[in-house]
Every structure is written in C-alpha cells, then in structure tokens.
Amino acid sequence: AVAIDNARLFGEVQTHAEKLEARVRERTLELEALYGITTATLENPDLDSVLSLALHLATQALRCPAAAVHLADPAELHLAACLDNGAYGLAELLDAPAALSLLSHLSSDSGPWIADDPPADLFGDRVRAVAVAPLRAHGHSLGLLSLWSAIPYSFADSSLLLTAIADQLGAAVENIQLRQIARQSAIIEERERLARELHDAVTQTIFSAGLFAEATRESD
Predict the structure, then answer these.
(1) Furthest CA-CA distance within the chain
(2) What's the CA gap between 84 and 147, in Å, rounded?
(3) Which of 208-215's residues contact partners 24+ apart within 8 Å by CB, and which partners?
(4) Please, what sign has the CA dihedral across residues 48, 49, 52, 54?
(5) 144 touches 103 (CB < 8 A)
(6) Is 89 within 8 Å of 75 (Cβ atoms)?
(7) CA 219 from chain center: how many Å?
(8) What is the dihedral of CA 47, 48, 54, 56, to 10 degrees?
(9) Tens of pLDDT, residue by residue, the chain (220 residues)
(10) In b/e form, how buried is each residue of 104-120, taking b as 16+ CB within 10 angstroms?
(11) 165, 37 contact by CB (below 8 A)
(12) 118: three-class secondary structure by DSSP
C-alpha cells in the first residue's frame, strides 16, 4: 500500500513538473517575442526587417503557422509583411478588396478580434481561426497584426498576449517612422542649406562680375 501510494505521489509530482515546464516554455516564447521586437528596433531600424522578425516571433509565441501586418496609409491599409510559407496564399487573400474592407473596419477597434471558422469566401477553406489586433501608439492607429491557423480555437486564450505583441510592434513601427521622418527632415534641411549657399555664391559671382565690368568700362 505504501509503495502504491508513493508511486501515485511520484506520478502526480512528475505530471505537475511537466505542466510547469510546459508553462515555462510558453512564457519564455512570449517574453522572447516582446523582447525580440524591441531589440530588433534598436539594433536595426529597417522597417521590413523588424516586421519580418516580429511575424516570426509572433507565430512562435502563439503557435500558429501564418501571420501578416497591414500598415495604415493616410487613405487605406496596405499589406506590409506576410509570413505563411506559401501554405495559405495570404499575400493574395489579404490584398483582396473584401478582406481589406473587413480589416479596415477592424482597425478602428481598440481590442483584438478573434474568430473561429471565419468566412471561407474571405480567407479560404484552410483558415479555421483568425486573430487580429490593432497596432497602436499614443492613441493612434498604425495598422493591424493578424495571425492565422488551420486549427479551430487556436487563439481562444490569446487575447492578452496578442494585445501585448501588437502594442510592442506598434511602438516599434512608430519609432521607425519617426526616425524616417527625422532623417528626411535632416536631408531636406541640408539641401536647403546647400541651396542657400549656392544662391549666395552665385549672387556674389554675379555682383563681382558686374563690378569688374563697370571698372573695365571706366578704365576705357
């Protein structure tokens, strides 16, 4: 009886340890996703590279095979990055007018949108679960992060993590865009400075030529 009871207790401890180890692995992937996006933004301010890495980290953390990012232009959304390994054809699906219309509507929401068995006419027969979260920074909508799976209820308990990743990515996108604006402003300012210097140099040359011509006439 003692041996049986010890075996039962050992089994329970082992099961608990396995569950704890699985949770640690999950939390590690989640933290790697959040930390990785921030690190990528600091180390490489290239928007395409950051988006590509962010999608890779997001699919790992949320255990799904496909993801995409739409960014907001002044007039409409456009597909900025896509990761699906060719399995879903997301690049074509997400550029379709019907899908863009739905995603544009979702971009105005403040929280994530999670759907099981989404409309096949929008996303195809293979997509059985979709999770969409707006990219926001300082109250401004910058676009959308979407994740896709062929397994129903893949994102049933993922709204908090999805929101955290989307917020982190939104902050990264805003930082990169601000850097690009600052860089463009610096380039424009430098061009204007060179133009002023060139204008001043040309003006001085013309003025000097005029003085020389006048002096020549007086000497004649």
Answers:
(1) 131
(2) 10
(3) none
(4) negative
(5) yes
(6) no
(7) 73
(8) -170
(9) 777 777 777 777 777 777 767 666 666 766 777 777 777 767 767 888 888 888 888 888 888 888 889 888 766 788 888 888 656 677 677 766 767 777 776 656 667 888 877 766 667 677 788 888 888 887 788 888 988 888 888 888 888 888 888 888 888 888 888 877 777 777 777 777 777 777 666 666 665 666 566 666 656 5
(10) eebbeeeebbbeeebee
(11) yes
(12) coil
Q: And the tokens for 218? A: 């007086």
User: If DSSP states are collapsed to H, E and C, what string results for 29-84?
Assistant: HHHHHHHHHHHHHHHCCCHHHHHHHHHHHHHHHCCCCEEEEEEECCCCEEEEEEEC
CA separation for the pair 10, 16 (Å, rounded): 10
What three-state secondary structure class fits 199?
helix
